[in-house]
Amino acid sequence: MLGLVVVALPLAGKALRRLLGRADDQSLAGFWVLFTRFRDFDFVSFMRNHREAYKKGQETGNYLPGVCNYYTLMSDVITATSGPFWHFVPMFRNLSRIENHHKYHQTLTQYLEAKQSDKVLEIGCGFGEMGRQVATISGASVTGLTMADAEIVGGNQRIRSAGLQDRCNMVQGNYHKLPFEANSFDKVFGIYTLKYSADPSQAIAEAARVLKPGGKFLSYEILVTDKYDPSDQMQRYYVDNISSSTCMPPLWHAKDFRDAATKAGLVATKEDDLCCRAAEVDQWYSCFTNNGIHQVLSSKLVLRLVGLGEFLRILPASFTDWYEHCAVHPTTDFVNAGRLGIVSGAVMMTWTKPLK
After folding, report:
1. Looking at the domain assignment, is residue 243 inside a domain?
2. Are residues 176 and 266 in the same domain?
3. Is residue 240 included in any domain, yes or no?
């Protein structure tokens, strides 16, 4: 029955969509976006490029072309269905999803110890949302670095809309070779950034290079945990799907970042799993489970109806292929791997650069 409602959404009125929730808050109304806004998108080319780039990334270690292709579509899809916040956060049960993200912004700023006099760099910033939050809360000056043309344009638009032109700016570049002088920033941070790196040692070394002595580097990532057993077929299936569906390198272990930071001369300060801090906190993946989104996405009835919609040309060619591989996955894989404890999405890691 729910699948029928989903397919009927293009015929539904505003009142029904209000009942289903806000489209940009990971609610059922998000289906309205998937089935209408992207009706004219070329999913055939997107999926062909996706698979070719991922295969080449596995062969060469360069996943960047695949990541760039992925976000030609997914930056709009994620923003439209999840709002400006593209990462997982601890979910306090007495707060809404958006309120939990705002709470996380305060936590991030506290871990950074950002203050008004600081120059801060956000690497792999996307549209620079986290940097703007840090600037708003702390008063610091924040530079966002991304490689994507669309994110430079969109980030600058958002800076102007927020009235933060005096504190925020966007720079195009690769965080493996930062376009900044050594000892330029008081703080450097990345949120769900290094998971796209095939060489975190180089990325962290560059972060350390541009840090001022006494400065802080912060990383918040999706990581595999000590519980992960790659010889377990089901565990490997979940973890591999997260990478292949998003066209990024295999997930790193926290130890990889620890070793890279030590090699770069940084000193560990804190490492906390934010979902283990209080009993009233749900796990990071609960944004998909508390509202049943992961069950609806993977419902056999919905999958059949999506296929029927493509067959009848209500939906574009290869929409079903994209839906199964880039919407159902990695959503269900995050939930399944998170429940097993083999993947974590809420680990905050910080290091400092010694004064000497």
Report:
1. no
2. yes
3. no
Same domain assignment for residues 336 and 188: no
List the one residue out of 247, 220, 8 whose CA is nearest residue 125.
220
At residue 277 the predicted structure's pLDDT band, cuts being 50, 70 and 90, is low
For 115-130, the pLDDT digits (tens) are 999 999 999 998 999 9
List of long-range contacts for 39-43, beta carbons under 8 Å, 24+ apart: 39/315, 39/316, 40/316, 41/73, 41/316, 42/316, 43/316, 43/317, 43/318, 43/319, 43/321, 43/322
Looking at the fold, whether 221 and 294 belong to one and the same domain comes out as no
Mean pLDDT of 257-262: 97
- Chain-wide mean pLDDT for the chain? 89
Report the pLDDT value the prediction gives residue 15, as an integer from 0 to 100. Answer: 39
CA angle 238, 316, 335 (to 5 degrees): 20
Amino acid letter, residue 200? P
Q: Determine the Cα–Cα distance for residues 174 and 314; give it in Å rounded to an integer.
A: 40
Same domain, 212 and 166: yes
Contact 132, 164 (CB under 8 A): yes
Reported as a single tens digit per residue, the pLDDT across 36-55 is: 788 889 999 999 999 999 99
Token pair listed for 249: 């390198």
The pLDDT confidence band at residue 103, using thresholds 50, 70 and 90, is: very high
Angle at 45 between CA 288 and CA 55, to 5 degrees: 75
Residue 165 domain flag: yes
In this structure, the answer to whether residues 46 and 120 fall within a common structural domain is no
pTM of the predicted model over 0.70: yes
* Domain carrying residue 49: 2-88+281-340
- Give CA–CA dist 12/4, Å, rounded: 12
Residue 330's pLDDT band (cuts 50, 70, 90): very high
User: What angle in degrees, to the nearest 10, is found between the helix axes of 233-246 and 329-340?
Assistant: 140
Whether 242 is in a domain gets the answer no
Are residues 125 and 189 located together in one domain of the fold?
Answer: yes
